[in-house]
Design a protein that fits this description.
Distance between the termini: 31 Å
Order of helices and strands: EHEEEEHEH
Radius of gyration: 13 Å
Strand content: 25-35%
Shape: globular
Structural class: alpha+beta
Length: 115
Amino acid sequence: MAKHISETVVWAADAYRIAETLCGSLSDCALSVDIDGPDQVLNFGDGRAIIKPNACGLHLRVEAEDPLTFFGIRSLLQVSLSRASNDQSGHLEWHAASGELSDVIGRRARRTGGC
């Protein structure tokens, strides 16, 4: 299991398009891109990025063995996301995570009855 793990949620109406654009722009940097339904996993060797779109937004997760790889992947995601979503702020609030990918967006949708 990776030593460094964090997640963030990006609320976006066009999450599937943004996820596709993100993977397209990062595919040259990644060793491989694995697609599992709508979920996309970018493998960077000592780390990976998981991009999980749904109707309400994107759930991003970064896992890496060392801090340099960890922060490098997060930086790549932030820059690519700001370009893909036309949001020039580039600010994402990352939260420490452990274990499996949490379903923040799904829990919110079930609680509120929508996005």
